[in-house]
Each structure stands twice: as C-alpha cells, then as structure tokens.
Amino acid sequence: MRLRDFPEDEVFLQGSAACQGCPGSAALRVAFKALGRNTILAVIASCTSVFQSPFPLSALDIPTINMAFATGGAVASGITAAADRLVARGDFEEKPTVLAWAGDGGTYDIGIQALSGAAERNTDFIYVCYNNEAYSNTGTQRSGATPFAAWTTNTTKGKGEWRKDIAQIMVAHGVPYVATASLAYPTDMYNKFAKAKEIKGTRYIEIQAPCPPGWKFPSSHTIKVARMAVQSGMWMLYEHERGKTSYSAGTQRIIQGQSRRVPVEEYLEVQGRFRHLFYPQKDEEKIADIQRRIDHIFETLQFTHKMKEHIMDIELAQPR
C-alpha cells in the first residue's frame, strides 16, 4: 500500500479540538483508513477523550464509547462479547472490529491490569497505545513510558528510571499479534493495522506519539521528531507474529546496513524536555548512558542479522 492509494473516506472529521500537530489524531486517521467504517471505538481516558467527545463537536463518524482509565481491556471485552451475540442473532451481517484506543497512562500504568486480563483470555479486539511518553492530558506528569532523563512536571531534573516495554510484555502474553508503529512511516502503520484486522484474538499495536506541548518542540515538527526517534534507534519498528519478530521500515534499514543510525544526542537536542541535558552545561554521562543502551541493542540485532545471512549463504552453497 502506497500513501497515494489510501482510501479517501474520512472517519476522522475536520475541525477537531486536538492540538496543532497532534499525533493522536494523525494516528487515528491512518487506523480508520485501514480498518474501515465497520469499527466500534472504545476510548480510554486520554487526550483522545477530549478532542472526540465534546457534544456536538465529536471528531469521529463511527460508534464510540468513552471509559475510565483502568477499564479499557474490560470494556472492550464487553463490546466484543455483545458483538458476537448480535452476529449470532443475525443483527450484524459482519462482526465489527473492536478498537480500544489508549494513551500510555491508560496502558503502561493505570490500565495494565485490564489489558493483561483481556490478553490472557485472548479477547478478539485490537488494542492501541498511542504513546506520548507522559500523562500529557493532565499536565505532562511522568508515566511508566517516560524515557530516562526526560523532564516532566514531577521529574523536573529528569526521570531517573528507564521506561517499561509494554510491547514486549504483550509478546510474553502470547497474543497472536504485536506491532509498533510511527507517524513518520504511515504506510508501515497502515499495513500493520490492515494485517491486525484480519487476525483473530488480542492484537496490540503501539504508536510512538511525539507531543508538541509535552515534549516542547514546534507543532510543525511532529513528523520530524517521530522520524528522528526511529533513525536514532530510540523507537523501533517491528511486528511479532507466530512467535517470530520481524523489523520494518526505518529500523529494518538500519539493521541491514542500508542507512546509518543518527546519534541519540541529535534526537534529544530537538526536544525541550531534554534541555537540562545540554544547558547550562552538557551532561555527557547521561547522554552517553542512553547512547550505550541503544548501541548494545542494535549491535546485537545487526550481529544476528549477519549470522542469518551467513547461514543462508552456507545453505545455498550446499550441493543438492
């Protein structure tokens, strides 16, 4: 699928109350183009609750329900059960796709128990975490997704802990499909939603969502920052299906040696939330800590990739 071939139908309407450069609204547009109108949206308390719900100015042209932070997996499970019943009675010709949409606060922290329960039951729905790496809707407090050294209103000197990896926690649940995505690679995101639509059971997609007010960069730079996150290795694009992980788009090109990795420092420097790492004096140690962590991950991935290529070359060289 190419960008120019995306369906023209718009489920996300014009004139929403979202901030300029809002990553959540952009991600929803791509998701709806892949999933289509036969979708029921369950919005966990987040920025999306604000820009899609004020009557009569809802930004969404499909059935939508809003819910509390902790209830995403439970409410989506209930919607799925009701849809199954209506299909069995003949009220629905085709079962709608149930899409749960949450921020990192409603996924990494407050909502993890309901999500884990739904995943353990393998409930048939798509759960999306649009990860803006903080509680942006309530004043930019730290969350479990906030990266090490990032400023928030309650980590004013920089967060002292490394973030959790919920995508890998979902992989550990054994669900049929887990993927990560980026606004800077919309066709990759579209393809992952289209694939998830055709899979039964719990599907988890996590989208990095650079937030201009919370991350402190100009609203016109949302896509630029999202691209730098992937190019630096601070955000990785992959999908895990049937027990195997495959990398995609910018991450795949780095692993295969087709593009160079941008230094982490360049990514950090364009965001005001990391300003304290550069002013009044540069914190070389923390920047180096972050870079070493990313280097280790990619050196391991690149070594694995080269070993696979080497094994393939040996197999091809064997006489048949």
List keywords for this structure.
alpha/beta, 320 residues, Rossmann fold
Describe, in plain words, how this protein is organized in 3D.
This protein is an alpha/beta fold and about 325 residues long. The protein has one domain: Thiamin diphosphate (ThDP)-binding fold, Pyr/PP domains (Rossmann fold), CATH 3.40.50. Helices cover about 40% and strands about 15% of the residues. An 8-stranded mixed beta sheet has the order 2-1-3-4-6-5-7-8, sandwiched between helices. Strand 1, helix 2 and strand 2 (about 65) form a beta-alpha-beta unit. The mean pLDDT is about 90.
Brief rundown of the structure:
The protein has 320 residues and is α/β, with parallel strands linked by helices. The chain has a single domain (3-317), classed as Rossmann fold. It has twelve helices and eight strands.
